[in-house]
UniProtKB/TrEMBL annotation:
Coiled coil: none annotated. SMART domains: HTH_LACI. Residues 7-63 form the HTH lacI-type domain. It comes from the Bacteria. Keywords: DNA-binding, Repressor, Transcription, Transcription regulation. GO terms for molecular function: DNA binding. CDD domains: HTH_LacI, PBP1_sucrose_transcription_regulator. This is LacI family DNA-binding transcriptional regulator. Gene3D superfamilies: 3.40.50.2300, lambda repressor-like DNA-binding domains (1.10.260.40).
Length: 340
């Protein structure tokens, strides 16, 4: 059995007719080599012809960097909902000449500890901790010199985080209805302030609700009803809207706290012979892929996952300030709101 010998820097230098140190400076992009353009061209051509790849392990010993980023997620990699977080992170890492080592824990703390140890053993340059749905995240103690960025999460001990701007997103949802002329018969689907007074969901959910309620107040509006449900899933949206139609005949608009609730609402309305948006307008959150396939399409406030993933990597590599970084939630206008 024969093995192919790895092409070395010395091989490239020999082919280019230069010293190893000169070839190294050129391949590492040193701006002050004082070598001719011809020398640069010969080295780059020799590297391409020989199929040279830098020895990352050796380079890391010299510069104390491995050009690798650890990425610890709960279920980001195995669910379609938040895959944009990884997509954005990968694009930013590639642009910066880094690779990402991805681990997934399914929210299991013991697996998370194992994942962190594995990444630290590989001397990653920093770790991004990501969650599928924005929440407060527990993180075990890490070596003090390990850069950390939280993606779609917060932690009181690690202040650098990337989050969607939920408060502005909540305001935007209400503004869409108000600007369309809706003032009466508006129902909030997914939360009731009285019933959930002492219940904590997450900081980000609280911000979404704060934005919704602040915009309602600023516009001089109030909800006809608020429907509480812990799980924001289609079957709960369906059941709640069915009950609403029996008890609130003048229902005119729904603010759904996520798209799955809106999917259930669509079904309940259709079964009652009511049309969206002619009879009932809807606005929602998240911009789930299915929202664009509903008929009519669902107007929703999107989660900017790819932008968030890219920003997390940029902050990790750039040594960002220890603070929250909010990314604007895009307003996705489709056809579920009627002008009145």
């Amino acid at each position: 059995m024969t093995t192919t010998r790895r092409v070395t820097l010395a091989d490239v230098a020999r082919r280019a007719g230069l010293s190893t140190s000169a070839a190294s400076m050129i391949l590492n992009g040193r701006p002050d080599t004082r070598l001719s353009k011809d020398a640069h061209d010969r080295v780059n051509r020799a590297a391409a012809e020989l199929g040279y790849r830098p020895n990352v392990a050796a380079r890391s010993l010299r510069v104390d960097k491995t050009q690798t980023i650890g990425f610890v997620s709960d279920t980001v990699a195995t669910t379609r909902f938040a895959s944009g977080l990884i997509k954005g992170a990968l694009a930013a890492a590639e642009q910066a000449g880094h690779v990402i080592l991805l681990t997934e824990t399914s929210g299991d703390h013991s697996r998370e500890t194992d994942a962190i140890e594995a990444l630290l053993d590989r001397q990653v340059d920093g770790i991004v901790f990501a969650t599928t749905r924005a929440r407060d995240l527990f993180i075990p103690d890490l070596p003090g010199n390990t850069p950390v960025v939280l993606l779609n999460a917060i932690n009181e001990h690690y202040a650098t985080s990337v989050l969607p701007d939920e408060e502005r997103g909540g305001r935007a949802a209400v503004a869409l209805l108000a600007d369309a002329g809706h003032r009466d018969g508006i129902v909030l689907l997914g939360h009731n302030a009285v019933q959930e007074k002492d219940v904590f969901r997450s900081t980000t959910v609280a911000r979404r609700l704060a934005g919704i309620r602040a915009e309602m107040k600023d516009r001089g509006l109030s909800f006809e009803r608020e429907e509480s449900m812990w799980e924001w899933e289609p079957h709960n949206g369906y059941a709640a809207v069915n009950a609403l139609l029996d008890e609130t005949p003048h229902l005119r608009a729904l603010v759904c706290l996520n798209d799955p609730l809106a999917f259930g609402a669509y079904q309940a309305l259709a079964e009652r012979g009511l049309r969206v948006p002619e009879d009932v307008s809807l606005v929602s959150f998240d911009n789930d892929e299915i929202a664009s396939y509903l008929r009519p399409g669902l107007t929703t406030i999107g989660l900017p996952h790819e932008e968030m993933g890219a920003l997390a990597v940029q902050l990790l590599l750039g040594g960002a300030k220890q603070e929250e970084h909010l990314v604007e939630m895009p307003v996705i206008i489709r056809d579920s709101i009627q002008q009145v």
